[in-house]
Amino acid sequence: MYGHVEGKMTEETPHDPVSRKGAVRATVAGMLLEAFQTGYIGASIARTADLDGPYAIKTNLPYLLVFEETVEMLYQYAYDYQFDSTKFERHFRFTPTPYREGIEATVRWLA
Fold first, then answer.
1. What pLDDT digit, counting tens, does each position of 76-90 carry?
2. What CA–CA distances, in Å, run from 103 to 3, 76, 88, 96?
3. What pLDDT does residue 102 have?
């Protein structure tokens, strides 16, 4: 949805999708924001980095579709991917799961 971003991504980071998945995310976010701004719906949008951990492994999609989508998103691994969730964490009193904890939970789930 954001494409290549130098530095941290925040709620103010402009959308510049470079993938089909990113373009869909940007379109849906735009539709939600427009509906919210016109008073049609009440909404909160919480954006996260791609999922990790046990929930990322579960899927009902055919393997080929998952593989294609993964390949499309490989550009994210070519440079640092920093997401600043400070505003979300403060508003919702949320603490992100550290990577190590998520990896350990995944290994336990797979065992």
1. 777 777 888 899 889
2. 26, 19, 23, 13
3. 84
Q: What is the pLDDT of residue 35?
A: 95
- Give the pLDDT confidence score for residue 26 in this predicted structure: 92
Angstrom distance (rounded) from CA 66 to CA 80: 23
Count Cβ neighbours within 10 Å for each residue of 54-67 and write b for 16 or more, e otherwise: eeeeeeeeeeeeee
Amino acid at the residue 43 = A
**10/47 Cα distance (integer angstroms):** 9
Burial class (CB within 10 angstroms; exposed 0-12, middle 13-18, buried 19+) of 69: middle
Cβ neighbours of 75 (radius 10 Å)? 14
Q: Is the pLDDT of residue 98 over 80?
A: yes
CB atoms under 10 Å from CB of 88, counted, come to: 18
Rounded alpha-carbon distances, angstroms, from residue 21 to 28, 31, 74, 82, 110: 11, 16, 12, 19, 27
